[in-house]
Q: What sequence folds into this?
């Protein structure tokens, strides 16, 4: 199975590399985001202090996770928010369907939510006859084309204006062709406003969940998150169980570093705090608020002290923006809900390190992701750890599918290597041949072909080190 | 089979040994402090950078400033909360003719179509502002419903200079938001915007296209 999936990323990446439009779209977008982020952190000391504080807040939250979740749940319940728990995506989907059916709800408008992407909620609801419409402009654009997000913050970043103009003129009723961004935005506004007005239910993610008050915090620029959570009579929120923090004041530095890292904004347009459904005397807001807390492998990641750092992630996307691999191949090549560096460590841990063996090798380990991560997740170290887990069964770890990423070729190569190096005579013969005839090896030979595709072929020295030592009369000759 | 909640919390507990909690050094947040006049200037600069418009007023003139804006823009109507103190003051000063004051005094279900289709602007109070990044703090509730600051194409917000805090962090503490929060509270820094099409900024994608802050100078 692993051998089959391994070629996925490689093939998809190779294909993406041949698409000049895609490469230009990503290059331009990522360069812009890198510059904007940098401008937000003019003082290196401030940045480091803010990172340290944010890391400490997230680490503390995780250390107290079970207690905080219980406190959070109790406060939500007190506030009138109905809390549900799901082990798997299937359970979470069924819960949402049940909540909607109980209210007779047939249409759902969605704010941006990566967890709902994780659940493939839209496809599930559609199979049950419920319309689920994405209302974030980027999400709406890709939903029109039946695509998935290629970035966790900017889902439609892979498309340019001309592509969107063409798509709108074909897919939106009565739309004329225009490449004017304001006009395109106005078209989407018109369609979506009617949907907010008509929808039976709204769905959102959660950026931060506050235990001490039982509050769901939402960070957004467009206002579609507020529309989805305040206009329909029913609001359903979904979150991964790691999202909780102890206090509202803990959220302030996390929010500050989130928007700056993500899009280079000092602040988002809206920071929305939802602590309950429509209260006594209130004239608007949903009648019911439900919250689904999803595990989907997170408690397994939590069990390992080193891998637990993965759960500190605040989903800012900075690691993607700075990743030389992501910038060149784009988000779709990963064929995963979470692309880029965080996806490379999160996806294999959720789905099994054998199944997504391909992803952990799609990195140059340059370290850029770890360097920009606002909560100091050691992504490169975790990647190296997962690479080892993928080929070793003997470790007492909880990583799913450990040891299943070992390939027959790899096995064979290492055994041969061990066999040769353990036998001095064989080793000498092998090096004699390699030094005399290595040069003649064609660049297209198996095993070295991948290397020589974009690099000069390595040429072995004319004599091995021990031969030279002998010839020069060295001490160990 | 235990229910998901018990199973999940059980696994998290079993993962156990937490070790010492890392200390929280908030010096980086405490460094962000400015005198009152500078707080006003910072807020203004931050919000103007994201297309918020400002109107200057005093404690005595602000209703007239709101009125003059509505007339100048030729607004048909202005949605307001009659039970809110600032809303009531606005209504008391409102001369007949021109822009019509429209009270948000019914459940939204009774006028959803009208709210989405007919309302030109909404007027709300604020409970403070944030100097560091530029932002308004709002606490919608029975007197000032949530959708007033979201659905109409123009949002007019009343901000008293004396209520501007240094940062979001200090505002959370000053307002006691950590102890208790109403069903909805929020910070707004500008009109609704998106950069989802080729990183090009476009305003008014779902919420208000314009945010007008009536800044009341009450520092003296
Ligand atoms: S891993 Fe770090 S940089 Fe990447 S999305 Fe998460 S918080 Fe942001």
A:
């Amino acid at each position: 199975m692993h051998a089959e999936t391994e070629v996925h990323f490689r093939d998809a990446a190779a294909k993406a590399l041949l698409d000049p439009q895609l490469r230009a779209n990503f290059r331009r977008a990522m360069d812009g985001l890198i510059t904007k982020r940098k401008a937000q952190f003019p003082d290196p000391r401030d940045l480091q202090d803010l990172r340290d504080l944010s890391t400490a807040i997230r680490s503390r939250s995780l250390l107290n996770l079970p207690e905080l979740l219980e406190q959070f749940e109790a406060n939500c319940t007190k506030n009138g928010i109905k809390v549900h728990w799901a082990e798997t995506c299937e359970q979470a989907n069924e819960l949402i369907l049940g909540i909607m059916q109980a209210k007779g709800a047939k249409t759902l408008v969605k704010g941006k939510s990566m967890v709902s992407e994780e659940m493939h909620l839209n496809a599930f609801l559609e199979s049950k006859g419920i319309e689920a419409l994405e209302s974030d402009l980027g999400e709406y654009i890709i939903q029109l084309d039946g695509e998935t997000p290629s970035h966790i913050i900017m889902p439609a970043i892979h498309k340019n204006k001309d592509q969107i103009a063409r798509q709108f003129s074909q897919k939106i009723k009565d739309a004329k062709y225009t490449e004017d961004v304001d006009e395109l935005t106005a078209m989407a506004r018109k369609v979506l406003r009617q949907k907010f007005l008509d929808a039976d239910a709204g769905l959102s993610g959660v950026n931060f969940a506050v235990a001490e008050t039982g509050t769901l915090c939402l960070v957004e620029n467009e206002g579609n998150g507020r529309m989805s959570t305040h206009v329909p009579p029913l609001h359903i929120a979904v979150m991964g169980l790691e999202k909780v923090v102890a206090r509202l004041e803990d959220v302030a530095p996390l929010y500050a570093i989130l928007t700056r890292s993500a899009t280079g904004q000092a602040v988002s347009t809206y920071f929305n705090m939802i602590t309950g459904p429509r209260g006594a005397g209130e004239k608007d807001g949903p009648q019911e608020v439900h919250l689904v807390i999803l595990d989907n492998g997170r408690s397994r990641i939590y069990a390992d002290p080193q891998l637990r750092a993965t759960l500190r992630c605040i989903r800012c996307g900075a690691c993607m923006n700075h990743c030389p691999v992501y910038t060149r191949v784009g988000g779709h090549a990963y064929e995963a809900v979470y692309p880029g560096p965080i996806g490379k460590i999160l996806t294999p841990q959720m789905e099994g390190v054998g199944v997504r063996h391909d992803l952990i090798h799609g990195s140059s380990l340059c370290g850029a992701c770890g360097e920009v991560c606002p909560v100091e997740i050691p992504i490169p170290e975790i990647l190296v750890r997962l690479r080892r887990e993928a080929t070793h069964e003997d470790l007492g770890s909880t990583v799913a599918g450990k040891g299943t990423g070992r390939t027959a070729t790899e096995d064979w190569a290492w055994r041969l290597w061990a066999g040769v190096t353990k036998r001095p005579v064989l080793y000498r013969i092998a090096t004699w041949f390699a030094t005399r005839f290595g040069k003649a090896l064609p660049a297209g030979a198996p095993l070295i072909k991948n290397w020589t595709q974009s690099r000069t072929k390595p040429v072995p020295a004319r004599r091995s080190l021990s031969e030279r030592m002998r010839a020069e009369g060295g001490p160990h000759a | 089979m235990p229910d998901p909640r018990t199973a999940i919390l059980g696994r998290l507990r079993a993962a156990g040994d937490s070790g010492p909690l890392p200390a929280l050094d908030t010096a980086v947040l405490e460094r962000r402090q400015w005198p009152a006049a500078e707080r006003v200037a910072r807020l203004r600069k931050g919000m103007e950078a994201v297309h918020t418009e400002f109107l200057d007023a005093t404690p005595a003139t602000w209703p007239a400033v709101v009125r003059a804006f509505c007339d100048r823009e030729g607004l048909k109507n202005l949605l307001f909360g009659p039970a809110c103190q600032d809303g009531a003051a606005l209504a008391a000063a409102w001369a007949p003719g021109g822009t019509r004051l429209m009270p948000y005094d019914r459940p939204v279900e009774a006028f959803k179509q009208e709210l989405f289709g007919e309302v030109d602007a909404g007027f709300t109070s604020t409970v403070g502002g944030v100097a560091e990044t530029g932002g308004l703090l709002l606490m919608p509730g029975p007197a000032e419903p949530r959708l007033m600051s979201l659905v109409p194409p123009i949002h007019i917000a009343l901000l008293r200079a004396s209520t501007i805090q240094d940062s979001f962090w200090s505002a959370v503490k000053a307002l006691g938001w950590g102890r208790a929060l109403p069903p909805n509270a929020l910070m707004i820094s500008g009109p609704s915007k998106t950069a989802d099409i080729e990183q090009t900024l476009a305003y008014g994608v779902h919420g208000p296209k314009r945010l007008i802050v009536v800044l009341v100078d009450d520092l003296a």
The longest strand of chain B covers residues 154-160.
